What we know:
about 210 residues, binds iron/sulfur cluster, Rossmann fold
Amino acid sequence: MLITKQKPLEQILGYIGNEKSIFLVGCKGCAEGCHTGGEKEVSEMKQKLEQAGKKVAGTALIDFMCNDSQVRLMLQPHETEILASDSLLALCCGVGVQATSSVVDKMVHPGCNTVSLGGRHAEWREAERCMECGDCVLEYTGGICPVARCSKFLMNGPCGGSVKGKCEVSQDIPCAWQLIIDRLTKLGRLDKMQTIVAPKDWSVSLTAGAASKR
Ligand code: SF4
Ligand code: SF4
């Protein structure tokens, strides 16, 4: 079970910026168990966004947001609402934000920080991974995690070593930062890369030494 904490509302509103219409997604898996993204928290967040002058175009609760097939299936009935919205806000772990980003061509704002694995799970074979860093930066990277996917853990990339989209460390893996640039270009949000992301403060993660366990 991935342990999450909701980000401060001010930070979420900062991500949303001038966008007016938001589609809200929650997860009935780990996030509901952590009281960060279940039915109650989605309803509370809807109220907070509306109080802040935002329109909530729609809401959806997905059984397990870490499963991109399930995200695709359960968001399908909301296609019109999602198309009408400026962006999505995801109350779930980092994997869920990444899975949602992989199936929706809109910005997906992370509403939570993932702080711990909360135990063990089976081998994870999907591309979307989270290192439970405790301060999610997916807002600035188009929903692709540089902590989990860049060989040098670069918070501000690329390093300049990639060749034809492959990482200089291994030709078998894509350059995470090339993927990030491609994704932000597709969304018309390359401006997100102008934010300089501070070096990781691993003290906010409850997974001690997560980076060394990759
Ligand atoms: S930045 Fe990456 S490692 Fe950190 S919480 Fe987000 S998805 Fe997880
Ligand atoms: S080539 Fe890309 S993925 Fe590899 S270390 Fe450099 S920025 Fe990171």
